[in-house]
Amino acid sequence: MNKITGIEVYPLQAKFKKPFSFSGGITRVSSNNIIIKITTSEGIVGIGEACPVPGMSGETDVSICKVIKQYFEPALIGKDPLDFAVLTHQLEKLVGKNVVAKAGVNIALYDLVGKMLNVPIYTLLGGKFRDYIDINGSVGMGTAAEMIATAEEQMAESGVKYLKLYCGRDDIDTDVKKLKEIVKGIGGRAEVFLDVNQQWTTKEAIRAIRMLEEDINIVLIEQPTPSWDLEGLRFVTESVNTPIAADEAVFSIQDISLLALNRACDLITVYAQKPGGILRGHEAIKLSNAMGLDCFMGSYIELGIGTAATAHLAASIPVLKYPCYMYGQFKYEHDVIQEPFDIKNGKFKVPDGPGLGVELDEEKLEYMKAE
Questions:
Q1: Residue 355 covered by a domain
Q2: Spatial distance between the Cα atoms of 34 and 114, rounded to a whole number of angstroms
Q3: pLDDT of 1 over the 90 cut
Q4: Is residue 354 part of a domain?
Q5: Total domain count, the chain
């Protein structure tokens, strides 16, 4: 019987092509992603990716590697990979939180099982509802002119028809004026949605969104208010016409239940990383739909392995009304997969090979290793 024989971790320094600034004041120039390999007694290797964003989950590349090697590897040695759901549950009981470390291992388990059974991960999730997924570009903070220029670059390089704009650092009047200028500059060639990263108070959010609704169409707005302010988010959702998505307010399926029961948002941003991997991400999709909430896929800006995991989850969403954030291929100088994804006219083709459907490039992995 095929048994797990070891786990290897490979911390990377993945450099962005250009600095990327979020609404909350964080600017990223690189990402310390970790590639995970799970090997079996028959020589089959499953690959996963953990993408730490310390401001979100509190994890770093150092903490992730330590948790995987010190706690998860001993617990998985000798186990049957086909028990991947049982193993995931056991790892969750073994160490609290550490969701990105868990995600990296869970993705590798799914890839491993898909390869063992010679099926794509979406088959393990019950099948795919679509072959192609609309994706969005992602325009970091800057002046209006800088953000328009970035939008132009992204529309040209990927053909995206949707763009996420970050906002919330300035006062409301300045923010709204700049956003209207950017949307005018885009000129209807792409639909726009906003990510505020919790920067507005309830009153600020309602005022800003109503001012925007007077002149421009916004597809949706992600997490306008602080993650802890459930009542504030509910009041914003009730007070505006634009759909409101919960992002930082969601780490677990229990969070989704609270948001739905309180009618605090219109839709949920689901991740492969944030809930702890594919298993819990798929549960988040099913619960969101069961509670009457739309959902779509977000990203920690993963490399190709993590992006493939996101794509399989996106393919499993029964009704997908919104674009998904799978843009890492265009953000990084280099990637660790052998072939780039098939992305044309802003549509991402879901990989069809066994497991994740992507192959690790060992030379690139060596080149990108952290010093």
A1: no
A2: 21
A3: no
A4: no
A5: 2
CATH number, residue 26: 3.30.390.10
- Residue/partner pairs of 51-55 with CB below 8 Å, 24 or more apart: 51/100, 51/273, 51/300, 51/301, 51/302, 51/303, 51/306, 52/100, 52/300, 53/100, 53/300, 55/24, 55/26
- Which has the closest alpha carbon to 265: 253, 249, 252, 280? 249
Q: What is the dihedral of CA 201, 203, 206, 212, to 10 degrees?
A: -80
Distance CA 200, CA 210 (A): 14
Residue 11 placed within a domain: yes
**d(C-alpha 34, C-alpha 7), whole Å:** 12
* For the chain, counts of helices (H) and of strands (E): 15, 15
CA dihedral sign, ordered 228, 314, 97, 259: positive
Contacts of residue 89, defined as CB under 8 A and 6 or more positions apart, other chains included, come to none
List pLDDT tens digits, range 60-104.
999 999 999 999 999 999 999 999 999 999 999 999 999 999 999
Give the model's confidence band at 371: pLDDT under 50 very low, under 70 low, under 90 confident, else very high: confident
Partners of 192 in beta bridges: 163
159 inside domain: yes
Residue 103 structure tokens: 């995600």
- Measure the CA–CA gap between 162 and 191, rounded to whole angstroms: 5
Are residue 276 and residue 128 in the same domain, yes or no? yes
- Alpha carbon distance 305, 136 (integer Å): 18
Q: Tell me if 158 sits within 8 A of 139, measured CB to CB.
A: no
Provide the pairing of β-strand 162-166 with 137-139: parallel
Same domain for 194 and 46: no
Share of residues in the chain with pLDDT > 90 (%): 96
Q: Is 163 helix (H, G, I), strand (E, B) or coil?
A: strand
The range of the structural domain enclosing residue 278 comes to: 124-349
* 231 and 300, same domain (yes or no): yes
